[in-house]
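ping. complex inputs:
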Amino acid sequence: MKEESIEFIKSGGVTAPRGYLASGISCGIKPGKKSDLALVVSQQLADIAGVFTQNKVKAAPVIVSMQRVKKGKARAVVINSGNANACTGSRGIEDAEQMTTVTASFLGCSPDEVCVCSTGRIGVYLPMKKIIRGIEKACKQLNVEGGKDAAEAIMTTDTVPKQAALKVKIEDKEIIIGGMAKGAGMIAPNLATTLGIITTDASLSPEYLNSVLHSCVQETFNRISIDGETSTNDTILVFSNGLAKNTTIGMDSPHKGIFKNALRLVLDRLAREVLEDGEGVTKVVEILVQGAASEKEAELVARSIGNSLLVKCSWNGEDPNWGRILCAIGYSGANVDQNKIDLFYNGFQVVASGVRTETKESLIKKTVKMPMFSLLVDLHIGSGQYRFFTTDISERYVRINKGE
Amino acid sequence: MKEESIEFIKSGGVTAPRGYLASGISCGIKPGKKSDLALVVSQQLADIAGVFTQNKVKAAPVIVSMQRVKKGKARAVVINSGNANACTGSRGIEDAEQMTTVTASFLGCSPDEVCVCSTGRIGVYLPMKKIIRGIEKACKQLNVEGGKDAAEAIMTTDTVPKQAALKVKIEDKEIIIGGMAKGAGMIAPNLATTLGIITTDASLSPEYLNSVLHSCVQETFNRISIDGETSTNDTILVFSNGLAKNTTIGMDSPHKGIFKNALRLVLDRLAREVLEDGEGVTKVVEILVQGAASEKEAELVARSIGNSLLVKCSWNGEDPNWGRILCAIGYSGANVDQNKIDLFYNGFQVVASGVRTETKESLIKKTVKMPMFSLLVDLHIGSGQYRFFTTDISERYVRINKGE
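pong. complex structure:
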């Protein structure tokens, strides 16, 4: 029998695993903000994998980090908030590279071993003097309990820092996974950038590290939406430095299942925190679509509902507006037969075969008043299913995003 | 030389052309509303064509009218507001058919010659007793100046009735085209249904009538968006009764160009009125995308910008947030090179080759303060272009759509 267990570590973050240091300091990019520059460092060279925005307009730090991640080895990531370094042309690329060069010189490693992320205002050049002084300061303050400082420094309009960590016991070894994220906070003209930095002391084969990150992101961060938009700067990185001294987990390891579960749990917790802390969000809604012609079609339907402005407005008004949901299903592009659609709110059936049921309106209204509820759609066409998380949209969202 | 001219008719609507009667009355579907049932009748059997919602969840009146339009001949359309008769199963179909039967019996024609439209609340059965009494009343009040009453009766949260009419002179004949529409008004749990009824006394071949309606709708109503959602009830119908006694315009007629221009002008005016009267709308924005790999790709980019919640919020805040626009271009799915993108607000270049220009911020801010402005995007990849109209989004939109 495999000896395996998972246990969350209270208030742990990127410095929870062995061999990681972090810091978060203010270099003055964003006046009035407590801190705006974060550094996460592995004390020894780590394997690295990354997932980047699919947006064809990519910020300079994304372009630079994509190249670094391809090499598969890294020591650190340097992150600033308050400026996205996006749409800044060749000067932006030079600035992002300089951030890695300066960090590398203080750490005594190659610039190739340093990744970089930015989040904040688009189209403005980075204040490099401030940033260079900031990197020096951040390097001096690196420490084994710096995870929370780093998580605070990457916040934009997030109201709370987002961290998670857990221990995985595999045979006689204890592996730790830690992580931090920033969410869908936007202030004009910023963007809804998602950043996630994951650290682990597990020993993993590079191939497995890359594969497990992609599949876990697919099942967590890629299934949440506040406004349906992907940013120029979205980045999720994972470092693994092997200090747990476990037998290396590869594509054929008997323990790859538990490691994947653990990594997914960390990413899932961070993704939920991002969603709950979305601008003006009052409700988190789980959408499960089943009975679609394929998983792809189920996804189309789930995203169509989850990104419908009219549906999100009605949830904000605590109105279980099933008509708008059927409408969003109808224009999703998926194959649907309106006379077969069933719809349930938290298990209460609202629509049967495309027509309103006798379920009491008051029962359904009560459900939609909850801060979290689920919506189940059954298309009764095939066996494709998809799960997706979304939120309501409020007047406050519009107010925040109107501009300065 | 062809003798051709076009002239708008002030405050004309569906009864402007020869041989059309209309009325708008209250039958009490929606308490407190001045009127909620409209009737438009051609005194003699007319040719008819229609364009219907692409939504796979179609309201009962859409299903019934689609069948009627296929036969190509009609005498009338009966329309109610306050109830969409959507998601009402087989009883909904029976009710829609009964509306046409009752109308036909008063007009002395076949039910097959009557179309039906509904707009309003989804998932509630029609109050048929009220509607039958209403149809009788509407038939009694039919008159040659009833266009405006009809335009008022189909309103939902529209603040003004929407009508247009014009005269086309072709050789020695005068053709008149009239029309009415209702717009993107929504009150929970209603939907953003677009209805348009066009009448003309032109003599047109059935093939040409169908073809010209589809291409004009493609260039007008299909190029506007407030929230990017298509409803279960969208319908545009055109009647032509031939009373202008012009030489029939067919697919090869020398005058088909001027007729198309005229019809497009009527639809364009109605579509603009719908847009300007959208819920909470403070700005109408024209988006022109050029230099795309194809027209289809240009459309992807235009719709991605025009439906971006973040872009629309920033316009509402009078913030010319070009970073969000580049971001929406990047996730549009179209082939783009971020280093080639140019962007102009009302002719002022804001972005050149993906990077901010030196154009004064104050100049651009002034542009975005206007109630109507244009955005030009040049991708510099190919020769595909597309024109699209959209609006900002306001806190009032969310408030209106929160529910009851």
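Chain A has eleven helices and 16 strands.
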